């Protein structure tokens, strides 16, 4: 499971740790930030007594250094390993999580972890191309072919079915750790691909520019260290690379060190997530909009479902600490008649609603009646609380640097699109790297990386706008607005082209929201 | 012939004179001596010259430069110039923007010609390629990364130094052999190559027919040749001269002279006389929305041809 170079690094690290003490103590002052457009200079090696005892270890040269070995970072590595033109690249993965070296342990008997992702068909085909999907299928996963969305006013509902777009499923719910371990083993099985895991954290980043203006005289001494970015890790290892990829999440240090600014806001909402158990299996994804935010019930296999429940921060604190039985009661209430009545089938008032004339050419799901989600009988995991925010980096790339996933954009978890956007980034970036290699351009060159940025900004911003719009739509509880929302639900339910477009947008198959295509 | 030579020389010198001086203030300051010069016209020695023809003119006959022959202050100066040459937003932006598209054409035609695997990261492994009129090396370096053994030549010594300094920064381009010489001289030395490439050069040479003969002589029998230039069409006049030089300021005024452009059929004819038969021709089209160049059938402005040297 652990390959020899990784073992060596682990060993080195252990030795260094025991000699030098905790390297974390020297990490903090080394994080120096500076203005946009330039990298933080690595802390000068001449000052400070703690610098003297630091043993700098040369980690080597890499083509790509991925900071963050989460789902998106590993997907990028897998994607590079799977394309003939990028297969030769040497890749470093920097992540302090020991699981990357020791392997991720998945217990099939235990109830599923509350951290799950809703994987779209676009992401599934990406996983299949990389050869990682087989491994996912060996673990717990739940395809769903139906989805029901409704709201607390009881005025309308929409049912989506995979049959509307002639597909077998709308998506698949998988635990994050399953996705991560599948990508990891896919990477490890690929013996020809050169990858090195550094079980450490990024401390600083600098650009090795060869400009005489900055006193870079090393070219005159005959060295050819190349036009590279240099990374220093918290354990004293340094490595140089043509391209640093920030896959280090919404609090990305790479983004900070590269000086990229972000735009965004907090929703002053928290999400409570947990695993729950039903009496029977659940094969449908449910989402009900409540005054304080949506509650989603996603199937995760066997008799389990995952709850993602958005609410005000004070409510989330109460619901996290309340008695299990009370929580189950409140969840069932929120999924049925809490805050308002059940919708009647069809548009309010009659079965032949305003869109009934469309029924001759309707999608299969248009005739489906409103259904009640299955009752929750038991809480099957701990309850976790996450604050929600929207954040978007103004730039994704600069020379030697690219951001992917949450480092570039954090979205409202509604519709489970976040990680799919991240996988889309990973795929797009690996393709752009391939294109750069095909025409002999250095992979750290910003002119090529801009192509990645242009492609993904459109996709990410449109999804962010749609999700943010939904969130804002439900912040107001006003009579006329409620009717409008209900009309929108009914339109989505009964107008076949719109419905197909919504499904295809949510599946990751088209980049622009329904009304723009 | 003499008038043509003269015209070519004026083309190059007017390029240098007309270059916006503000762009080069940094290198001038660096060189020190030049900054004390009060005259408004910047000294031409501090400007990165355009890629120069390997044919018509030669200023510094047969002076090879290599890393070791450059002194430290010299290196600093050329390093700064190289930064300008290689700045994707700098004065050579149009060349940089077009480069991936030109390389895509070269990659697909050369892979087909020599039966190489186009999905390989280094498909040109084992091929000897000469880049005639290499300028700062923006074509030579990608070719080297694609696996080729590259020689880059340029008649302007400053270009060669810029190219050398820049190539030394990356181990993958370290092996490029840069030489300040002309195609004619290499023909006399009886050097031959698998592939001869000369992009955006032939419109600057005094005698295109002679130049093509030299290119042909540099290719091995059955070897490939790639040439790109600008069409002598009204659209080319409007876009390559009026728009690019005067309206957009992409190129210094006087870079191109419309009457020295070649029509595709003329180029095909003079290459045929030089025993190179054309296999493929494509045009470059610029999309101002995406700011990218695309290959197309439209050869009315910029075009590129690929041919092979007849075996005889």
Number of strand elements of chain A:
20
Shape field of chain A: globular
List how many beta strands of chain B DSSP finds. 8
Mean pLDDT of chain A: 78
Radius of gyration of chain A: 25 Å
Q: Can you give the helix content of chain B as a percent range?
A: 25-40%
Q: Biggest β-sheet of chain B: count, sense, barrel?
A: 8 strands, mixed
Fraction of residues of chain A in helices? 25-40%
**Total helical segments of chain A:** 15
* Count, helices of chain B: 10
Give the percentage of residues in beta strands of chain A.
Answer: 15-25%
The secondary-structure class of chain A comes to: alpha+beta
Low-confidence stretches of chain A: 1-52, 210-225, 346-352
Structural notes for this entry:
The complex is a heterodimer of chains A (517) and B (312). Chain A has helices at 4-20, 24-30, 49-53, 71-82, 99-102, 121-130, 133-137, 176-189, 253-257, 313-321, 324-335, 418-438, 446-473, 479-494, 496-506; strands spanning 57-67, 91-94, 116-119, 141-144, 146-151, 157-161, 171-175, 195-198, 202-208, 228-233, 237-246, 262-277, 284-290, 293-301, 304-311, 378-379, 384-393, 397-398, 401-403, 409-410. Chain A has 517 residues and is of the alpha+beta class. In chain A, the strands form three sheets. In chain A, strands 5, 6, 12, 13, 14, 15, 16, 17 and 20 form a nine-stranded mixed sheet that branches. In chain A, strands 1, 2, 8, 9, 10, 11, 18 and 19 form an eight-stranded mixed sheet that branches. In chain A, strands 3-7-4 form a three-stranded antiparallel sheet. In chain A, helix 4 (71-82) packs across helix 6. In chain A, 49% of the residues are buried. Mean pLDDT of chain A is 78; it is low at 1-52, 210-225 and 346-352. With 312 residues, chain B is of the alpha/beta class. Chain B is built from ten helices and eight strands. Chain B has helices at 2-18, 25-31, 72-85, 93-114, 140-145, 157-167, 183-188, 208-218, 234-247, 264-273; strands spanning 128-132, 149-153, 177-179, 193-199, 219-230, 276-287, 292-296, 302-309. In chain B, helix 2 runs antiparallel to helix 3. The radius of gyration of chain B is 19 Å and the shape is globular. Mean pLDDT of chain B is 77; it is low at 1-48 and 53-69. The A-B interface holds A 84-88, 210-213, 217, 219-220, 222, 224, 226-227, 435, 437-442, 445-448, 454 and B 26, 30, 67, 72, 75-76, 79-80, 83, 88, 96-97, 99-100, 103-104, 107, 119-121, 141-146, 165, 168-171, 174, 290.
